[in-house]
Amino acid sequence: MHFSSCLCALLVALVYQVSGMDTVIGLYGETIEVPCNNGAPKPKDLFMTKWKYDDGDLLTQLKDQDASVIATDKYKDRVSMAENSSLLIAAATLKDEKTFTCMVVAGADISEYPVKLLIHKAPTGVEITALATELEIGKPTQLGQCRTSDANPAASITWFKNKKPLVADGKGIIISSNVKVDEVTGLTTTSSTLQYTAEKGDTAALFTCGALNTLSSPVSFTVTYPTERISLHVISKGPLMEGANMTLKCKADGNPPPTSFNFHILGKVVKVENSDSYTVTDVTRESTGEYKCSIIDNAKMEDSKNITINYLDMSLSPSGKVMKSFGEGLTLTLQTHASGDLKVSWTKDNGKLDSSPKFDKLTYSDSGKYEVVVTMGALIKKASFELVVEGVPVIRRVAKRRSEDGQHKVLTCEAEGSPKPTVAWSVNGTSADESPYVNGKITHKLTIVPTVNLTVVCTVSNEHGQDTRTINVSTLFEEVRMDKQDSSDEGDTTKLVVGVIVGLLLATVVVGLAYWLYMKKSKQGSWKTGEKEDGSTEESKKLEEKIEEKLEENSQKVEV
Questions:
Q1: Over the stretch 105-146, which tens digit does the pLDDT of each residue have?
Q2: Category of 500 on φ-ψ map: left (φ > 0), alpha (ψ -120 to 50) or beta
Q3: How many Cα atoms sit within 13 Å of 30 on the Cβ side?
Q4: How far apart are CA 45 and CA 449, in angstroms?
């Protein structure tokens, strides 16, 4: 009693201060913390803290003492005080939505901090019920009802189409909502009904509804609408060519689509039921033309397509294996007939040729496998023949040379012919080497060591005949001796030629001098003796002719 009287007297002497009201939101079923003075630190001269609400006190705490629960109602076992003087309320319900006040006594002041508590609860789930079986274009239809329950405050439902919110416009989109409150828990159940007028693009649309951050499972609907247009399609594997099968497919844009059609096949009408396709088998070039399809109950609704059947004909002459003789001609004939532009390419032994082959005069190099490829788009045709050019072998060249070490003679025999000729020598050698047989040509080399002068014969032969050539081969010793003699003879010959030339020149000078002296004496005698000039003139002429003949002869010898 004494403590109570003192406390009452103290409270009378204190000054009351009431602050503005704060709001705290707690979650349904959870423990809620209601802060005192918005969580401000305790004053240094704190004497007492007390929590209360409109119906009475809840608990008090004196400085440096534990909190004491005063409440005797539903809060008796649900309230406690935190270290920072906050009020803790366990298992929150909607009935806890009220104002709680924290009273703080410090020094000569009494301060009160009222806090409004709100309890929120998210809806337990969102689902769409009462779904429509189908939607018809242009006709308002109740699409479904979206429902969410056990929420506080009442949930607001939004409808979505393909994740985009739908906004009611009172025409194509009409949304109506309804909220019910549970009498026991106070929680709400919200339902929303969507009336929707479908469009053709809604065939694959996904509809959902949501409340807060919760969405329903998406739903879709069959949208029905009449056929307005049909189209004819051609289905085939690769290009349409003779011998292939061609499938015609008639597509309608209605939903559900028609199940029966008329196919017009080159003027002939074929009725197809419970299918939208018709197959024309083993088409030919005569199958080219106009094709149509139409709806059975509406012949005016049709579509047509001009279809071309591609074809490619090709023949090549000759074909197979062709045997020809060397030097003959071969006529090559390629005939084509096609529905479009062609591309022709040739290969020989898998190597590409720049142009079509021509065989005016066959050679062994013309032998090989020839293939022609004719293409038109994706169509490809091929033909080939194997050309074999044969003939009597002919030796083109025989040659000899000394080996690099100077100890052997290397004989070479080059020949061509087909089939491959066999090469034989009239002598045996230390080693033989044969080149690859290419384009009818072969080269055979034989290494020998001749001890005497030889006449060697090279013989080439095949099933068509043979050819031979000879070559003279001297011994290695004779060639060495002849080389030395040739060198000495060349020096002697040079000296002899120089001597002859000098001698002839000297002789010419002597003859000329003699002639000059003779002429001089003859003229002097004529003047002194008075001899007949005619006789001396004749003799002079004869002498001059002899001297000229002699000079000319000497000149020719010098030239030689």
A1: 998 899 999 999 999 999 988 999 999 989 999 999 999 999
A2: alpha
A3: 12
A4: 135
